[in-house]
């Protein structure tokens, strides 16, 4: 579990923490039908399954529709600037290894302006979970093509003949850069998504979960994803090479499998591996 070296407190005699305990009173402002509603529910279900105290969880995000999630959760939250969620979360986790740190973002925030941070977060392997809601469009800024948009998509006035650019392959990049846990899910398969998130949070090191999350406003054709997605074959996760080959040959709509579980040790700061706030304060004492 992504809580550094500390063990979780016993909950044998404590009342169970229900999913609603992780939800704030702020009402989401996403468009009706947005896949991010289901992702939010899956996150709170996963935290309840793990019985993590809300005060021991932190949610960090950047900018975009999906990055609103910290406001909708009843855990510590930090809404950062565009593309900078991962370095913010890395700094938090390294200085407070006692916290379970989750990062929420979208394909534009994470793979465009945040692309360099994504590469180095995979390489650095800090013990946290990155949940990327990928709808292949910039939804909050009115429907421009994003890094994961197909080259022929012509639904934006800025690219009426398509982008002509190859779509970014985030999970291939994650595997090549050293992410310790890699999976792809679909927001419409909430039980599977919850299960994968539980495993991602538990797995040591940097976990990447790409969630296909339809934007029904600017990509209404994505409503058909529910009819097109399928379970990735077990062979896709046989080894690192198999995972890469599967992703390179796939159409991007196979989901539901953990494609890679690495065994790299998470990166920690000397002096903070066992600590918390007291150790950090002691390090700055005059």
How does this structure look, described?
The chain is built from 10 helices and 9 strands. By secondary structure, it is an alpha/beta fold. The strands form 2 sheets. The protein has a 7-stranded mixed beta sheet with strand order 2-1-3-4-6-5-9, sandwiched between helices. Strands 7-8 form a two-stranded parallel ribbon. Helix 4 (107-113) crosses helix 5, helix 5 packs parallel to helix 6 and helix 6 runs antiparallel to helix 9 (240-249). The longest helix has 15 residues, at 36-50. The relative contact order is 0.15.
Number of separate structural domains: 1
Low-confidence stretches are: 5-12
Instruction: Please write the CATH class name.
Output: Alpha Beta
For the record, the CATH architecture stands as 3-Layer(aba) Sandwich
The helix/strand series, from N terminus to C terminus, equals HEHEHEHHEHEHEHEHEEH
Distance between the termini: 34 Å
Cα shape: globular
Portion in strands: 5-15%
Average pLDDT metric: 91
Quaternary organisation of the protein chains: single chain
Largest sheet: 7 strands, mixed
Question: Which structural class fits the helix and strand makeup?
Answer: alpha/beta
- Radius of gyration (CA) equals 18 Å
Give helix % range. Answer: 25-40%
